[in-house]
Design goal:
Distance between the termini: 63 Å
Number of helices: 5
Shape: elongated
Amino acid sequence: MFLFELADPASAKLIVLVNQLKTDLDNGIIDPSSYTTDEFLTYLQDKGDIVLDVTDLYNMIKNPPLNTVISNIQGDKVVFKGHDETQPSADPSQSQQVVQQMAQSAMPTQ
């Protein structure tokens, strides 16, 4: 943590809340697979009196301190770093089929 981060009380609150959020995730208090943006915004408002809207949240997850905990927002779900379970397991035969189809479509027709 840098000294200039403590100069702004709102930034200091946000840093503390993000650290608390990470602790709650690690301790299983928050279920990372079903945490919504509304729940996160309510968390910030209830715990730190920080009022944001979804647009602010989309912009803030790209920068510290939120980018250290949140990797993305998909729809209305918050995706936390290390908890990205939305990636489907790839079926090797399906992957090969897709590659073959792409190769055929890329070849010039005669």
